[in-house]
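note to self — DONT lose this again. spent like an hour looking for the file last time. sequence + predicted structure for the chain T wanted, 457 res
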Amino acid sequence: MGTTASDAGATTTSGATAGAAAGVRPGTDPRPGAAGSGPGSAVDRPGGVDLADPAFWRLPAPARAAAFAELRRLPAPARFGAGQGRGGRDRGFHALVRYADVVEASRTPGVFLSGPGVTTPEPARWVRLLFGDSMVNLDDPRHAQLRRIVSRAFTPRLLSRVEEDIRRVATELVDRVEHERPRDFVNAVAAELPFRVICDMMGIPAEIRRAILDQVNHASEHTGVARPLRERLRTPGRGLRALARMQGMVAALGRERRRRPADDLISALVTADVDGRRLTGRELGAFFSLLLVAGVETTRNALAHGLHLLTVHPGQRALLLGDLDRHLGGAVDEIVRHSTPIIQFRRTLAVDHRLGGPDGPLLRAGEKVVLYYGSANHDETVFADPEAFDITRTPNPHLGFGGGGPHYCLGAHLARQEMKVLYRELFTRLPEARSVGEPELAPSSFDHRVRALRFTF
């Protein structure tokens, strides 16, 4: 689970030992000898490492860290998942694991397309027609048009109110922790804060929030997680049904706000007029789904990983609590770098392209690449001692919110604010708050998900 060089608090073994655990043979040249993989071409994967195999994501964190370190040392991106899928399409992809390669793919959107789909597998055409296209699956000019509409809706007045909401919700959650002493940090705090803030911002009525949260959980619970065939057959379409119900609720709210606008984000989105365009009901539903996954799931996981990291690194914890004003911002960015809540997105080559310049490996039009943000965030050429958790790391140009370009996370500022406000409230009032044991992680290839984290104070 996760492409971080080590999961929160994991002890890193030597590269040779961890590499052997991952199936990488120490002392061997991992480059393939197959014809057609010479200089200037993408290479096949090193023996024993298969990022397309769900079993890889169940390996211990140090083993996966060593595997990514091996991949970063290859002369070109390794290729995984080769084979023919439905319709004779090649299912293979090239793994972009170096910082520079992930940034290049992110900032060259005309070459590295999002439109075919950024998740694995790509969303089916009928699903996209039914539910609408998420912004992450769009290229310009459609992406730029939707982003302008959304950006226009985030008015200074709305953003000011959101900051007040974050402080209020954080205070209420720590009040509850003090009085009720819950055991699971994820359910009691980490999941509640971003969900309540986003619902307040969107203007979701209190009486339907729990119903929406249930649908979110059903829609996202198996994303990137390998399941036995019998379980997949037992619940066919459950996630899609949940998504449909959730988007139906939001679309109904959008229709109501068009008739009677309120001071909330839904009203702003359905009434904003940018070049004669505003969000349709389907687009509103797709945006809300994205906002809940990108804004709730990722912040929830970062908050949980952060509490555990600060628990298993007592020196860093003491440094933070000794001067919150000085170190809190740096701590938040280091938590995001180290845990990297979103593991990967993928892109499709629009044209033949040499990665890194005219002498770089050749990627062909139509081929897929996967951007591994966690590996990039532990690239030794960018981050000194990348395995270390260091809240004073400066600079810290991590890719936890994307590699730049048009798809850089719209909610990066909101996520940072939520984390800073929550940690300040928690550690000011309950300075002994800490995790107990290891976090319960989902073996996901998509996000660095924390299912539960026991804590005390």
